[in-house]
């Protein structure tokens, strides 16, 4: 997507300097900063401390981290050590393990002398694949928006509600939940996006920055406003991303998604989840019982970052001194609350049978 007229991916390889660069998302939406990642430790820090975030982008970043380590040391020991270091950064998003497993499986049979070039080529492939997957998610999601638009009075926008940031900043490009929005806007369909703030890290601000930069009508709202809007008929469709989807269609996404699904179910609002197929964990059935939920530092809850009165970016404490803090980063929405899953291969029911129709080769494995 574009920032001030220039196209960016969220992670890319600078062929002029032979370096991997990322958009450092800690500073958005208030400052746009680009960082170069050079060492395995820098890639691990970028994932763990959320310089990059979003399951697809985490996977791509890990692939580039493996490639950079193979440049430094292509030995078996270094390959396995890199897998461990990167895998330990964040436990919930399945794309991380998927990308690391893919890299190690591909590189292990190769002679060490051939691993550096092969690893970088594979990282490029993983990044390019993610862009095309998300583009196709947008094409399939656009059809749902068109169907809703056809039932509304001429000129009235389709009103979408989204939670967290499942935009191009959470992927390599296009985004998952935002891809249908961009396709709809590009097709001239009027839409309005309700953007949840998504405490505690306020990642909805990234979504608002994204869609605003694209010229999409939107409003940034508090996390608890969604149910009220649905009660008053002001939401036509909820669409979110997911960090891990089970084989039976449960979806694990940013904390608060489950509450949006409950409100949507109670008010008859369709609840869709946009997911690239690498986020499907075919080894897991019951998301509530089996998916590990990351507990992040309490400081994310006690402090909030923003622009201060002097124009600088800083933190302010919002919690009382001494109050215990809890910060589960994700929750699980059971498949029964999900209207449909939007994938690169099409839309299906959130069920084993639905997923099997689109991914028969995986469902049968």
- CATH fold group of the largest domain: Rossmann fold
Count of helical segments? Answer: 13
Strand residue content: 15-25%
Model regions low in confidence, pLDDT < 50 over at least 5 residues:
none
CATH superfamily name of the largest domain?
Answer: Translation initiation factor eif-2b, domain 2
What is the approximate shape?
globular
Q: How would you sum up the major sheet? A: 7 strands, mixed
Structural class: alpha/beta
Rg measurement, Å: 20 Å
What share of the residues lie within helices?
A: 25-40%
How would you explain this protein's 3D organization?
The chain is of the alpha/beta class. The protein folds into two domains: 128 residues, translation initiation factor eif-2b, domain 1 (Four Helix Bundle (Hemerythrin (Met), subunit A), Up-down Bundle), CATH 1.20.120; 224 residues, Rossmann fold (3-Layer(aba) Sandwich), CATH 3.40.50.10470. Helix 2 packs parallel to helix 4 and helix 4 runs antiparallel to helix 5.
Topology:
Layout: E1 2-3, E2 6-7, E3 11-14, E4 19-23, E5 34-37, H1 40-48, H2 55-72, H3 76-87, H4 94-107, H5 112-150, E6 158-162, H6 179-186, E7 191-196, H7 204-213, E8 217-221, H8 226-231, E9 237-240, E10 244-246, E11 251-254, H9 257-266, E12 271-274, E13 280-281, H10 287-290, H11 299-302, E14 303-307, E15 313-317, E16 330-333, E17 340-343, E18 346-348, H12 352-358, H13 360-363
Parallel strand pairs: 6-7, 6-9, 7-8, 9-12, 10-13, 12-17
Antiparallel strand pairs: 1-2, 3-4, 4-5, 10-11, 11-16, 14-15, 17-18
Helix pairs in contact: 1-2, 2-3, 2-4, 2-5, 3-4, 4-5, 5-6
């Amino acid at each position: 997507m574009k920032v001030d007229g220039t196209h960016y991916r969220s992670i890319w390889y600078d062929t002029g300097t032979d370096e991997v660069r990322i958009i450092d998302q800690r500073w958005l939406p208030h400052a746009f900063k680009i960082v170069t990642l050079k060492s395995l430790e820098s890639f691990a820090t970028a994932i763990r401390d959320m310089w990059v975030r979003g399951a697809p982008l985490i996977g791509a970043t890990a692939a580039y981290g493996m490639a950079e380590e193979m440049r430094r040391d292509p030995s078996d020991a270094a390959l396995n050590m890199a897998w461990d270091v990167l895998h330990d950064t964040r436990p919930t998003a399945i794309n991380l393990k998927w990308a690391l497993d893919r890299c190690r499986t591909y590189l292990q049979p190769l002679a060490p002398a051939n691993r550096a070039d092969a690893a970088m080529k594979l990282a490029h492939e993983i990044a390019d694949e993610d862009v095309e997957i998300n583009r196709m998610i947008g094409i399939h999601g656009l059809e749902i928006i068109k169907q809703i638009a056809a039932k509304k009075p001429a000129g009235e926008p389709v009103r979408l509600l989204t939670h967290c940031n499942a935009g191009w900043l959470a992927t390599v490009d296009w985004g998952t939940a935002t891809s249908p929005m961009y396709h709809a806007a590009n097709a001239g369909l009027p839409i309005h996006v309700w953007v949840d703030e998504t405490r505690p890290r306020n990642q909805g601000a990234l979504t608002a920055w994204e869609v605003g930069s694209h010229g999409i009508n939107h409003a940034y709202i508090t996390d608890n406003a969604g149910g009220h809007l649905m009660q008053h008929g002001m939401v036509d469709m909820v669409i979110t991303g997911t960090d891990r989807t089970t084989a039976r269609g449960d979806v694990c996404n940013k904390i608060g998604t489950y509450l949006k699904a409950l409100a949507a179910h109670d008010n008859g609002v369709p609840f869709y989840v946009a997911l690239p197929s690498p986020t499907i964990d075919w080894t897991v059935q019951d998301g509530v019982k089996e998916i590990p939920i990351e507990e992040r530092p309490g400081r994310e809850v006690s402090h909030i970052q923003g622009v201060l009165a002097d124009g600088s970016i800083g933190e302010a404490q919002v919690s009382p001194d001494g109050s215990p803090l809890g910060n589960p980063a994700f929750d699980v929405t059971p498949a029964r609350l999900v209207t449909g899953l939007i994938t690169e291969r099409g839309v299906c029911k959130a069920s084993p049978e639905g997923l099997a129709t689109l991914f028969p080769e995986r469902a049968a494995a």
